[in-house]
Amino acid sequence: MAFKFIVLTCLVAAASAGLVPAAVSYAAPAYHTAPVAYAAAPVAKLAVEEYDAHPQYSFAYDVQDGLTGDSKSQHETRDGDVVHGSYSVVDPDGTKRTVDYTADPHNGFNAVVNKEPVAVKVAKVAAPVAYHAAPVAYHAAPVAYHAAPVVHAAPLAYSAPIYHH
């Protein structure tokens, strides 16, 4: 315990004498600017969309990619609170899934799913290549390790000798 106290005392003495650089802290420079006068900008009236009591729309899309075999489509119409639609997609198992759906306030959402086999030409992916690595002979040469010489630095401050156990 006394050893630690002596070491701590020596370090404090060395720092106080200026032999050990003290921690340096940097602060950001303070900039003083002229006061700015703020004028309140006029408040813009937010545009509020009118509520459509009877919304109507219709949309559709169709994707047919002969290279990859990607095939999907959808169409949907809305008239007020009643929605009718259908979508189809070719699943990875080679079947075409078609979903016909309706939604209205009285019956909720209802969907009917149909699956049918489809012959689709899909781009073929190259077959995996068999890879067999030849065994590698490895013979490690013995390595000689030599310790680097120990260099002692000059002491920072003169103090009582420190004894190691």
From TrEMBL:
InterPro entries: CHIT_BIND_RR_consensus, Insect_cuticle, Insect_Cuticle_Struc_Prot. It comes from the Eukaryota. Residues 1-17 form the signal peptide. GO terms for cellular component: extracellular matrix; extracellular space. Keywords: Cuticle, Repeat, Signal. GO terms for molecular function: structural constituent of cuticle. PANTHER family: CCP84AA-RELATED (PTHR12236:SF94), STRUCTURAL CONTITUENT OF CUTICLE (PTHR12236). This is Cuticle protein. It comes from Papilio machaon (Old World swallowtail butterfly).
